[in-house]
Specification:
The complex is a heterodimer. Chain A is of the alpha/beta class. Chain A is 34% helix and 17% strand. In chain A, strand 5 (208-211) and strand 6 form a beta hairpin. In chain A, helix 1 (24-39) crosses helix 2, helix 3 (85-98) packs across helix 13 (350-365) and helix 5 (172-186) packs across helix 10 (302-311). The termini of chain A are close together. By secondary structure, chain B is an all-beta fold. Helices cover 0% and strands 48% of the residues of chain B. Chain B is built from no helices and ten strands. Chain B has strands spanning 8-10, 15-16, 22-28, 34-35, 50-55, 58-67, 78-85, 88-94, 109-119, 125-133. In chain B, strand 2 (15-16) and strand 3 (22-28) form a beta hairpin. Chain B is globular, with a radius of gyration of 17 Å. The termini of chain B are far apart. Classes of the chains: A alpha/beta, B mainly beta. At the A-B interface, helix 4 and strand 5 of A face strand 6, strand 7, strand 8 and strand 10 of B. Strand 5 (208-211) of chain A pairs antiparallel with strand 6 of chain B, so a sheet runs across the interface.
Amino acid sequence: MATDDIYILGITMTQFGKHKDKDVLDLATEAALGALKDGGVSMKDMGVLAAGNLMGGARPIAQEIQKQIGQTGIPAYNVSNACATGATALRVAYLTVKSGEADFGIAVGVEKLAGVGLLAGGARKEDGDTWQRSGRYGAVAPVDGRIGTDTMPGVFAQIGMEYGHRYGGANFELFAQISEKNHSHSTLNPLAAYTKKMTLEEIMGDIMIAYPNTRPMCSANCDGAAAAVVVSGSKLRTLSKEQQRRAVKISASILTSDPYQEACQVLPDVNTLTRMAAKQAYEKAGIGPDDLDLVELHDCFATAELVHYDNLMLCPEGGAVDFFKSGATWRTGKMPVNVSGGLESKGHPIAATGIANIWEICHHLRGEAGDRQIQGAKVGLAHVIGLGSACGVHILEKSAA
Amino acid sequence: MAEKKAEQIPFVDYLKLGDKPHLVANECTACGARFFDRRSACAKCSNTTFKPAPVATEGILRTFTIVAFAAPGIPVPFVSGVVDCAGTSVRANIVNCPADPRHVTTGMKVRLTTYPIGTDAKGTEAINFGFEPIA
């Protein structure tokens, strides 16, 4: 192993779902202690901690975690980057180790979201007694529902429908089929929030949230945490053979933000920054999409999964509909996507998501995924989008040791 | 005695009322990028000067969703979409049209229309914009 490579030494995700008796710190520390144990190291070894809890606002979650598992005086970063928070925390730990400032680092993402409704556009201020201009648009009253929608199911519905407009073939039924795939995959994932197989009829007949996204086509709000310990290649060489065997190489760790595009001020552009991140990741890792054995991508809505097949270059440009129809992205296909069940069934505890998707990949690369193991998996890609926007792409490779 | 006509104001700064209601964007004087909100500098080229630019009032519906679940107080279902107005993308509701996928399709031609959203305590009526199908 090259000494300047960075590896995931230990990684964990908690059960996703409803944790009535556990608070944010219980979940975060369960994940953090789990990742340390998985890596055979302790808090005393860590040179950096980065943590995120998006709904916690200004809460210093990293230091709060330290107070539960070890106040060792190391730099602690509180990270917030929308749904890419977990991936960003991991990247902070990665960069610190890469810079040589630390041999080990740990990243934690945690969220308590079970039962929470719409995360944006869930409440609208009442109109005032008199019209008064405010904000950068000079609106005299709240705009949500009057000039388009602020809700995420609605925003991502438009992102999927736009792809359909541009290339054709994407309709309600096709998007529902994507959801059918992910719900089917979830039956093999004991840590998923929802593990119920759903028929196409059940999905299409469920409550409509924002056409064409029905409820099961939306990511599930839930509680959960995930954590990862990273280590430098040079340090890994001094660890046990078993630690070296289970270590997963981070062949690329990329973070991008959304570059200017004509329409991005009216509808967030999740395409350009994802394509940029994927391109950079493939170049950095020296591999192409065809080399991937599995992909976990950000299916916050069924309509989003379709566009990311294209953005991650898993298919020819404009070819995502045919690519999906070929069966490629089912776990039995040539490019399994979201074998975890994806955000639609595994759940989406926001800040945990960008580490949990990496856990899923690592689980397969280590050959520890049990019933849902993708046989012989050597390379995987994890993708996450935080609206605003941020995109994290990590390419992971099975250890050569 | 004639009833006093309510004073009308546009719902947002970038809507201009009058005989021919239309939207006005802030156009970057260097690169031509258009913004509906107030910007410190251009997001495309970082230039700091803008000029007002009228936006075409007809366009093509590039994408849409039919929102069935929204914040309390927002009437549903409603159609939210992005209209390509001769190269300038506009976010708006699609109005004067049933909110179902049989009547709303991407690629359909739409035009700007205005409608009142309410009258405040001073008797001022706020006028919003939407886009309606061109029959």
